[in-house]
Specification:
single chain; binds 4-methyl-5-hydroxyethylthiazole phosphate; 9 helices; alpha/beta; globular; eight-stranded parallel beta barrel; TIM Barrel; 211 residues; binds magnesium ion; 8 strands
Length: 211
């Protein structure tokens, strides 16, 4: 089952990925994407190993962004691959049948192409502008995301869509109503004054969430 709330890790002022992951798990997330930019493979492996321990403790799934070999090494639950990362076919060959593979889409053409692959979900965005990611693809908004979801229905494509990019609590209800399976969120949770309250507010807008 693909969770409806995908938490994405960040380093924040004074807090490491691992500290923020533990706080997010305590706040009630059960799906963690470890997203590290600008560190060496050795550093990422070390952080991923610690993240795996934390996720195990809280029974949360751990998905590694970009780094398929590190995901395999730490026995993560899966990987998330961007448009310029390893092809999902190659990742599936390396990881085998069971691990979760998610991939990013920005356009209907991306979705159509990815739907042919042996993947488990698509991260669709950016929903709106965000400082969290550099080299952002064109912003889709609710209109763009809804249009792509409608195309999927017309073409009989079934694939969980996780909206991403600048998502605020008040967007979550509209996104799930438009047919998104769930949302992927970084800064809203990582910079929240009260993470538990923020995570609860997000989950409240998603179907069948447990509190
Ligand atoms: N991919 C598209 S937007 C984005 C990623 C990784 C950043 C999401 O972070 P935030 O802080 O929720 O906008
Ligand atoms: Mg990537």
């Amino acid at each position: 089952m693909i969770s409806r709330l995908h938490y994405i890790s960040q380093e924040t002022d004074g807090k490491s990925h691992v500290q923020n992951i533990e706080e997010a798990c305590k706040a009630g997330v059960d799906w963690v994407q470890l997203r590290i930019k600008n560190k060496t493979d050795d550093e990422i492996l070390e952080i991923a190993t610690l993240a795996k321990e934390v996720c195990k403790k809280y029974k949360a799934k751990l998905i590694i962004n970009d780094h398929v070999h590190i995901a395999k090494k730490v026995k993560a639950n899966g990987v998330h691959l961007g448009l310029t990362d390893m092809h999902p076919k190659e990742a599936r060959e390396i990881l085998g049948d069971r691990p979760i593979i998610g991939a990013t889409a920005n356009t209907w053409e991306d979705v159509e192409r990815l739907a042919m692959e042996q993947i488990d979900y698509i991260g669709l965005g950016p929903f709106r502008e965000t400082d969290t990611k550099s080299n952002l693809s064109p912003v889709l908004g609710l209109k763009g995301i809804s249009a792509i979801l409608n195309q999927m229905i017309i073409h009989d494509i079934f694939m969980p869509i996780i909206a991403i990019g600048g998502i605020q609590t008040e967007d979550v209800f509209d996104l799930q109503l438009s047919g998104c399976h769930g949302v992927a969120i970084a800064s809203l949770i990582n910079y929240a004054d009260n993470k538990k309250e923020t995570v609860n507010d997000i989950k409240y807008c998603l179907p069948d969430a447990e509190f």
